[in-house]
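Minutes, project huddle
Topic: does the predicted pose make sense with pyridoxal-5'-phosphate bound?
PN asked that the exact inputs be recorded in the minutes so nobody has to dig through chat later. Recorded below.
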Amino acid sequence: MSTTEIPHNKPTLGIEEEQAALRVIRSGWVAQGHEVEAFENEFCEFIGLPRGYAVAVANGTSAIFMALWALQAQGKRVAFPVYTCSSLRHAVAMIGAIEQLVDISPGTPNIDLQALSQTGADIAIVPHMFGLPLCLSNLKDIEIIEDCAQALGASINGAAVGLQGKIGIFSFYATKLITSGGQGGMVISKDKALIDTVRDYREFDCRQDQNKRFNFKMTDLQAAIGRVQLRKLPIFLSRRVEIFKRYIQSGLKLLDITSELNIQLCPVRYRAVLQINSYSSRNMIELLNFRKIKAIVPLEDWELLGKNNLFPNALTLAKESISLPIYPLLTDEEIEYIISQINFLL
Ligand SMILES: *Cc1c(COP(=O)(O)O)cnc(C)c1O
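Predicted holo structure (tokens), as shared on screen:
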């Protein structure tokens, strides 16, 4: 093995992305323009929506904010899990809604749907954590924002995630499944009025009306990179599946979806999360780092969005999990090295 550290995550950026960025730079037009529009259209095609039903934005956090804005969430109760990215809480606070925190269901990284129903909240933001999709067809009387930041390409009964609720959001941050050059996001909806509202919000400048808006635009430079990445996504996803399978074959116990009756859940392998008791997990991370393998706690207990003792399932998962490297650029040699070191330590 080489002596350089194996990072926990790494974006897969190559010559095609370089060429796309160069094309935009040389065109003399780098702000939101034709590339953004093309990215939106290609994204619609990927999801299975007609043109015009996706709006590209600055990042996933602003996508959530704009989804909440379109649903007129100000002053309403918005539920979301404690075990997720802090951006959900930020967006809910910025819109002026009331947060309602919910635990995850045991043995999964996803929100407890029964507990969610019992909150009586007006709106729910539901993330598919680690690429493991959650079927929301039984959720009634609540408006859903599906957070697909970690699940681009996952599907439920053959339909892409993002279409189960009122609005779907995606992130193209550097470490997500694809990146539009470090930051980026997308909002989708089957509802023309809602997606038009989101687009109207984005076009903040030179408006006759006096409505307050913030600048959450994506640039053509970002979109051009995102378009290349979206084309490569199937290759990225199959390489991730290969790595996940190899980890499983070698005996590692990775967090996975639990099958549901009559529902076909197709995950994407965004994260390879090893479950292990809390003492060993910290120890293991340190020992792996010493062996030049960067593993992390996917979400630390202090990162949970609510008081620990009220959300026991989230606390357990935070304490008993390790996220292993899983990304397309990981070589077979590196994978075998990681497996051998873990099996040695276990
Ligand atoms: C990354 C992420 C976000 C936020 O996306 P940004 O593009 O980083 O703002 C929101 N939700 C989840 C589940 C995420 O993983």
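Observations noted during the meeting:
- The pocket of pyridoxal-5'-phosphate is lined by residues 59-61, 84-85, 87, 127, 147, 149-150, 171, 173, 185 (CB under 6 Å).
- The first helix runs from residue 15 to 27.
No decisions taken; revisit at the next huddle.
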